[in-house]
Amino acid sequence: MTLKLPVFADDILSLFAGRSTQTVDIPVIQPADPFLDMAGEDLRRRIFLTESETGQSLCLRPEFTIPVCLRHIELASGTPQRYAYLGQVFRQRRDGGNEFFQAGIEDLGNADIAAADAAAIRDAGDTLSMLLPDAELQTTLGDQAVFEAVVAALGLPDGWQTRLIRAFGDQDQLDALLAGLSQPPGDVPGLDNEAAALLNAGDETGLASLIDRRMDATGYLSNASRTPAEIADRLIQKARFSSAHLDAKALDVLKTFLALNAPLADAPDALAAFARIAGLDIGAALDGFGERVAALDGTGFDTGSARYRAAFGRPLDYYTGLVFEISAQGAVLAGGGRFDRLLTLLGAKTAIPAVGFSLWLDRIALVRARSEGDAAQ
Amino acid sequence: MSVTIAVPSKGRMKDDATDVFARAGLTIAPVGNDRSYRGIIADMPDVEVAYLSASEIARELGNGGVDLGITGEDLVREDLSAADEKVEICARLGFGNADVVVAVPEVWLDVDTMADLGDVASHFRSRHGRRLRIATKYWRLTQQFFSAQHGIQVYRIVESLGATEGAPASGQADIIVDITSTGSTLKANHLKILSDGVILKSEACLVRAKSDRRSAADEAIMAKIADRVRGLSAA
């Protein structure tokens, strides 16, 4: 069965065209490495992989964000740019088809973070309101930057901060970490006497040279993988954070934060109240959050349908600030967020702020069909 | 109607499997000469024995090509997606013991747990310009363990079809996921198993392919064979 372009595709493209975008064409066949590098090996099971005659890993386009960014870097098109796309994506799914249409906008290089975030949410929301005039749309927002600020303000050592931030958006991982943080501190296990003595003395140089000698003696190259200095440095840090644990009060603060769930209009006040009661200095992150809400208000977006949920995030290391999704009838129809780290990870020479969203056209078509069915009755 | 049992075609696995069946009162005799790839079981005319390689046995169990098979649990879980929907382990046989483990260089003094490894993986790209590389032939088990169980997403798998334990020293990969029975090969290559790095404690198993098209008579024969082998491992 060939997949037909959704009847509303042109409506989407003309709406996008009115939002200062240029439409890009992205080849269906893509090199697989950038996707696996960015999203991780777990993606391998979910994409359609093949190999070229020369042994290069290729895949059918599983999404648009990475190829749009790669194209931008390659063409050195200059910023800011707003790219729009609409096309098929291919993923192995247990439920639903393996090929479906997505459309979206990637906004690259706009230094006005609040305005760019607001525009992404507004454009996604406007497209859905146009396609689903009768549906009740719910928008959920999270903010990685606020979470990172809370974790940093709690005074956790860097190792724990990294772990918590990495787990953000994955409730099970987060729960396991919180349980670990309430345990009393332990020693660094698995060390021999010589290394333990150097560690107790805090002798980083001594540790590095011990590791270097051992690499030499065991035939490991000291420059092919982790270096002696890197291992020694992390060992010292680990000794520091294995003696860290959150007291009951700080753990409560973190849990209270993660449980925050408020209408978006009330969220700046709720966050400010939380920070005041907890005694945390997270002003800069809260300012950014407030500016975004104000900017969103200014676009005419109906913030009444939006909620902020503190624990909402995505456990991928290139997301940085805003994450959001819009759903109707229990199905997520649009997902988006800010990924300021992605372009440098993909090879851009300078940091390029980026935010975007993607619409699931197959799910939108389902909701439309349902409401047409209701109307016919 | 008949029942096909797949038995490893060579080496220790073949001898141990034949021995387990013999002790369960099921004597396998090759058809024709000793090197034949077909066999029969005395007193069970409806049973055919097929000698296959251990990993082919796992695959054939998954697609219903054989009814029963003796193979390692590691191969079943690696080669089959949704293994528990396709096959059932009837009995653990107490031989072919081997653990699938995550091992890192001994000189990684700071890495003792999967959480440590997660920290290292998350910083790897910014320090080295590439993701952490894992050499393994166990793609599926590695992905499940790292991604689903430990939430570690950022790594790359380098396929290794032999001498995996040498990959870190030679710089092909940073760490490995491999099978070990005594740990001596890992030790000889200056690798250590993470304290929570045992992915699977594997051993040879009698495995049944699930099927809803089998005759009741065949199911009864299979149940009888499984019962006899189970009786043995309970004793």
UniProtKB/TrEMBL annotation, chain A:
GO molecular function: glycosyltransferase activity
Pathway given in the UniProt record: Amino-acid biosynthesis; L-histidine biosynthesis; L-histidine from 5-phospho-alpha-D-ribose 1-diphosphate: step 1/9
The Class II Histidinyl-tRNA synthetase (HisRS)-like catalytic core domain, residue ranges: 12-364
Keyword entries, A-Z: Amino-acid biosynthesis, Cytoplasm, Glycosyltransferase, Histidine biosynthesis, Transferase
First-listed, main subcellular location of the protein, grouped into a coarse class: cytoplasm
InterPro entries listed in its UniProt record: aa-tRNA-synth_II/BPL/LPL, HisRS-like_core, HisRS/HisZ, HisZ
Localization of this protein: Cytoplasm
UniProt cross-references to Gene3D superfamilies, sorted A to Z: Bira Bifunctional Protein, Domain 2
Family: Belongs to the class-II aminoacyl-tRNA synthetase family. HisZ subfamily.
Subunit structure: Heteromultimer composed of HisG and HisZ subunits.
Function: Required for the first step of histidine biosynthesis. May allow the feedback regulation of ATP phosphoribosyltransferase activity by histidine.
Misc. remarks from the entry: This function is generally fulfilled by the C-terminal part of HisG, which is missing in some bacteria such as this one.
Protein name: ATP phosphoribosyltransferase regulatory subunit
Organism in which the protein naturally occurs: Hoeflea poritis
Automatic annotation (TrEMBL), chain B:
EC identifiers of the protein: 2.4.2.17
Residue span(s) of domain ATP phosphoribosyltransferase catalytic: 54-230
InterPro entries, per the entry: ATP_PRibTrfase_cat (IPR013820), ATP_PRibTrfase_CS (IPR018198), ATP_PRibTrfase_HisG (IPR001348)
Biological pathway: Amino-acid biosynthesis; L-histidine biosynthesis; L-histidine from 5-phospho-alpha-D-ribose 1-diphosphate: step 1/9
Statement: the UniProt record of this protein carries the keyword rRNA-binding: no
Keywords for this protein: Amino-acid biosynthesis, Glycosyltransferase, Histidine biosynthesis, Transferase
One function term, GO molecular function aspect: ATP phosphoribosyltransferase activity
Name of a matching Pfam family: HisG
Catalysis performed (reactions): 1-(5-phospho-beta-D-ribosyl)-ATP + diphosphate = 5-phospho-alpha-D-ribose 1-diphosphate + ATP
Keyword Amino-acid biosynthesis attached: yes
Assigned protein family: Belongs to the ATP phosphoribosyltransferase family. Short subfamily.
General function of this protein: Catalyzes the condensation of ATP and 5-phosphoribose 1-diphosphate to form N'-(5'-phosphoribosyl)-ATP (PR-ATP). Has a crucial role in the pathway because the rate of histidine biosynthesis seems to be controlled primarily by regulation of HisG enzymatic activity.
Name this protein carries in UniProt: ATP phosphoribosyltransferase
Organism encoding this protein: Hoeflea poritis
